[in-house]
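Help! Submission page says 'invalid entity' but I think these are all valid:
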Amino acid sequence: MVEFPPLGPVMPEILMTGFALLILVLDLVIKRKETLAFLSVAAAAVVMYAVLGTSGVTFSGMFAADGYSMFFKLIFLLSLILSILISVKYIAIERVNYGEYYSLMLFSTLGMMIMASAGDLIVLYLGIELMALSTYVLAGFIRHAVKSNEAAVKYFLLGAFASALLLYGISLLYGLTGTTDIKGVAAYISDNGLAGNPALMLSVILFVVAFGFKIAAAPFHMWAPDVYEGAPTSITAFMSVGPKAAGFAAMGRVFLIAFASLQVQWAAILIPLAIVTMAVGNIIAISQTNIKRMLAYSSIAHAGYALMGVIAGTPEGLAGMMSYLLIYAFMNIGAFAIIIMLRSEGFSGENISDYEGLSKKHPVSAALMLIFMFSLTGIPPTAGFIGKFYVFMAAVNAGYTWLVVVAVIFSAISAFFYMRIVMYMYMKEPRREVELTTSPALGLALAISALGVLVIGVFPGRLLDLARIAITLGWGL
Amino acid sequence: MRIITGMPGQYIPSDYLPILIFMMIATAFGLGTLVVCSIFRPRRTYAEKLTPYESGNPPIGEPRMRFSVKFYIIAMLFVVFDVEVVFLYPWAVVFDKIGLFAYVEMMLFIFILLVGYIYAWKKDAFTWD
Amino acid sequence: MVELQWYLYLSAAVFTIGVFGFLTRRNIIFMFISIELMLNGVNISLVSFSHYLQDPRGQILAFFVITVAAAEAAIGLAIIISVFRNKETVYVDEMTETKG
């Protein structure tokens, strides 16, 4: 007889599944889709509360609710709530006000939560697929727009390709070590001194490529600009934060636990990857005229910064990476919320020139955008500066000073395109009347993001402490 | 719990020998018939013989016609629900050994599939027109 | 008696054909079939490892891969249909709405 495993540690995921199914069914009877949005936010809040009180390992070590996964789950749920808030009015304007939208977002977040908690490669794979399959549909949610269709096709093909590569890596690892348990893999590799094994190296490379696709690191970033531009803006905001953070969560577990004894080898692959990612993201962003596309390249560049936390390979580096991703959630979704405000009937508001003279007519929105742009550049006293500071400090302490110098140079280059938006808003005359679309939900999302950016920027100590405590609370399953 | 029995080193596929022989006979029969027919058949071709065979009726329309998209919807639903049943087989095989927990788990799994089914039903995915 | 390595060669060959097909084809359907081929290559190696290691995990993962591939096929075909309705093409080279 198989005993009942303790279900306490998976309670947030069970709740999330229940809520997502409930919203899918309620969509059949509820005609006002705003109600579903409200229910989804409430569901996310309940799950967030459940996450805070959950810890433990269950299903024979396949699922671990530790501090590390808790921190990541809070990032996912926060980005879910903010993304739903900015969606409410927007999907009505795009005329795709369907209830499946919210259900799919909940399912995608569920996938991310499973990824963050995966103690076994099988669970990790299932989490990735649940997240990815939901996000493919969301990227193509504006069914009548060719742009959105194309985004979904590109995202789907490259995502499925990356998953297949990941699976081959998993199967090689399984064949070598005889287990799919992340800790078991680590133990087998270090006990048998497999460090130089060519099949193991191939497996590591396949993992790097697959995660590179998921976090949009160059040279595996080709899909990101097209998909981010074509997808609904609210979904662009969602998937530039959630799936990316989930990719980092899984990467942290696989590389720092399963491949812990191979750190020299994978660091040698990840360092050039991080440099190329920062270079491609920051340099190509300069020439963009579409703001969603520009933020897509910016998102690539930010993956490069966060990657430095993994490369450092220390608890400090991981804590830096985790705080970076949380800060990135606030500032990036905030910036996308402003983009969504500019979208109105018959006006896309996606061109950078649409921001000319925004401060004259809409000073508050322009000021908020200024905060988010400062934060994305990494100018104090915003949170973006704090995030970069922690990651760079961790890399310096781990002995990668030269890498930090490179990152700082690219960070300086990034000021060029972020500050261009600020310059357009404040120093140019408005070329046309831009009407803003506002709603209470959008206002709330903006308030939360702006507060997050400023509060973390001014009182940074607590956040890093939290991330550090999260890691010491059972990092390593 | 080991599901697989028998050591890999001792595995001899002799049980499959009849199948191999059967496959060889089937192949030989098929190819042989074609060869014999091509030797003995008369060769007279005329226009009617070259038209596509459609049960004796004159062919209507292009052979590469477009299928209604409804076929795809039915096919997609079929593929998903059909393949998910794959989990029922291993579950059924060891059902008497794994107890209540596995039973509850499978019922939950089927319940989730059922929600998907109700959703598809209410969205009129099964009605043809 | 078939040695493990032959299964692995087969698996690697099927997987590589899939990768090659994905990288060279420009028809979405063919690219998608190539991905399925890659997944099947993985399944061969998973099941053969599982057999030689006398460990059921590989077969369990293969089951999951099959079911996830079915879900992926459903979603992929739906996406392809929606793009075909608007654009009447299945070639990725013609998908040029977004460019920078």
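Support: the input was valid. A stray whitespace character was the problem, and the output above is from the cleaned input. The mean pLDDT of chain A is 91.
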